[in-house]
Amino acid sequence: MRSLFNRLPCKRLAAARRSRRCLHSHSQPHPLLATFSRLSDDGPLPAALALLPDLTAAGVRADPISLCRLIKLCVRHGTANDGRLIHDHVSRTANSGGEAPDTGLFVSNSLISMYAKFGLLHDALELFGDMPHRNVVSWTTVVAALANAGGRKKEALRFLVDMKRDDVAPNSYTYSSVLGACGTPGVLAAVHASIVKVGLDSDVFVRSSLIDAYMKLGDLDSGRGVFDEMVTRDLVVWNSIIAGFAQSGDGVGAVELFMRMKESGFSANQGTLTSVLRACTGMVMLDLGRQVHAHVLKYERDLILHNALLDMYCKCGSLQEADALFSRMPRRDVISWSTMVSGLAQNGRSVEALKVFDLMQSEGPTPNHITMVGVLFACSHAGLVEDGWYYFRSMEKLFGIQPEREHCNCMVDLLGRSGKLDEAVKFISEMNFEPDSVIWRTLLGACRMHKNANLAAYAAREILKLEPEDQGARILLSNTYADLRQWLDAEKSWKVMRNQGAKKEPGRSWIELGKQVHVFIAGELSHPCSAGIVQELNRLIRLVTDLGYVPLTEFVLQDLESEQKEDLLKYHSEKLAVAFAMMNSMKGKPVRIMKNLRICGDCHSFVKLVSKSEGKVIIIRDPVRFHHFQDGVCSCGDYW
DNA sequence: ATAGGGTTAG
């Protein structure tokens, strides 16, 4: 008998065991059980739940399969209280004896999973602690719950250690869950090693988690390595690698992978499209973004995807399209509204941003802390000091949002940039936080803007106290000295940097044209069309000089002869990009340029005049905000 | 009975 069972395939084995048990234990199943089984299968849920007390009264035990199904039904319906009801029922009937030990285990595992899905981690852990036996599934469910909960990743790893100590071997389910909890390269390397050791590294689920984990830690090469080794990839694996590239700022790489994915015969789903849109957002690839839009139409109800599309239009500076989409979206959540608020603010339309925020308060969801960052950003970039103070002071009362570091930073920016440096310093000393380097850097930027070298030196020293290795402070400090033409001090500051091996990040601008992204590096004539670009640049300079352009050499940071300074200015990356764009862009269409550093004052006035003389809309996005140049005027009002 | 990928700011 025994050996016959062993030779049967698993499913049939289980069925045979069940039927054997039935024959031996009770001759007739209770009629209530049949009803319960049917109701737990496809509902209605309330009717199935109502049967539980009847079962208890009749002294009949519900079978674990039905119970597990019922628990899943509660998850689908989002009714945590019903799940609790089942838990109560099970614990009341658990110890009446006479059942296989695994029966309780299955139901308990289901319940843990249910609690985790409802975010009731406390209940999940309590139940886990009370269980007489735990198997891989129990451990895995808890590990996954902790890995997915915010801020409990360390505990997830601890549970992985504990389960091994308890002689329960993790399986591919466990590893694919726990990989998301590896917060440092060292931990990730260790977990990866043990995955290889037990031979689970070829599992697709494990692989996609590995790729994701490496990419999220910024280790693109390792992520790519895992991906390249794979023979059989599925859609999620493709999505992981594309998302990784998109999220780490390699938009071009993400798009290339997307093309390869399609060549391999996969078609994009919502997740793929979201990542591709994010890549477009990062690189200002508006044309590609618009093509993706056509595919988004299929997924009318996917909010994440629509929010990504909305952000793409905002960050490509096309607010008409953003606005049109926003008003057509059937549903809008906090993220949709926040995207719109900061999108408008970053594009220099602060007043409209605040109007959208007003609308949000009357007909939208409750703002969150990110929304408020956008609101304060709008105030600081339009010099709206009074409004900024109002929102900052009332956000806790109105929306229950406690001001955090980011909000304080916006306030320092608001006060500092509007020239109220003393108030900014006072604000810093009165904040609820210890000022960090970000705050000091904001103050330092304001000092540079208002040419207050003494305060700048103070802020820079504070930064260097906190981050002695960070060269940003020295750069900004020496820039301030340079602005003041205190060349000796600037030189001293540069020398320190040189000695520490620091190099200023080169300015880069890029532009999407046709199906390509063209990159321009300050001072380098590396583009294949460089000769033509220089010619065009000279033509533009002649034109704008007639309109009154004078090179603002104060934006050159070294002490050089003025002619050399003009040369350095002339080949700023955004000027190269503008010249290239003028030669190649379509008539009547705006030009979009993105750059990695903030735009300098000289380029700003140059582009203003080019927009006038060429009758062209030029949009330049820097890391913080946008400049829409049209007819000699910029949307930022020369305040950035 | 347990698992992997996508959205806002900094």
From TrEMBL:
<feature type="repeat" description="PPR">
    <location>
        <begin position="203"/>
        <end position="233"/>
    </location>
</feature>
<dbReference type="Pfam" id="PF01535">
    <property type="entry name" value="PPR"/>
</dbReference>
<feature type="repeat" description="PPR">
    <location>
        <begin position="333"/>
        <end position="367"/>
    </location>
</feature>
<dbReference type="InterPro" id="IPR046960">
    <property type="entry name" value="PPR_At4g14850-like_plant"/>
</dbReference>
<dbReference type="Pfam" id="PF20431">
    <property type="entry name" value="E_motif"/>
</dbReference>
<dbReference type="InterPro" id="IPR011990">
    <property type="entry name" value="TPR-like_helical_dom_sf"/>
</dbReference>
<keyword id="KW-0809">Transit peptide</keyword>
<feature type="repeat" description="PPR">
    <location>
        <begin position="302"/>
        <end position="332"/>
    </location>
</feature>
<feature type="repeat" description="PPR">
    <location>
        <begin position="135"/>
        <end position="170"/>
    </location>
</feature>
<keyword id="KW-0677">Repeat</keyword>
<comment type="similarity">
    <text>Belongs to the PPR family. PCMP-H subfamily.</text>
</comment>
<dbReference type="GO" id="GO:0009451">
    <property type="term" value="P:RNA modification"/>
</dbReference>
<dbReference type="GO" id="GO:0008270">
    <property type="term" value="F:zinc ion binding"/>
</dbReference>
<dbReference type="InterPro" id="IPR046848">
    <property type="entry name" value="E_motif"/>
</dbReference>
<dbReference type="Pfam" id="PF14432">
    <property type="entry name" value="DYW_deaminase"/>
</dbReference>
<protein>
    <recommendedName>
        <fullName>DYW domain-containing protein</fullName>
    </recommendedName>
</protein>
<dbReference type="Pfam" id="PF13041">
    <property type="entry name" value="PPR_2"/>
</dbReference>
<dbReference type="GO" id="GO:0003723">
    <property type="term" value="F:RNA binding"/>
</dbReference>
<feature type="domain" description="DYW">
    <location>
        <begin position="548"/>
        <end position="640"/>
    </location>
</feature>
<feature type="repeat" description="PPR">
    <location>
        <begin position="234"/>
        <end position="268"/>
    </location>
</feature>
<dbReference type="InterPro" id="IPR002885">
    <property type="entry name" value="PPR_rpt"/>
</dbReference>
<dbReference type="InterPro" id="IPR032867">
    <property type="entry name" value="DYW_dom"/>
</dbReference>
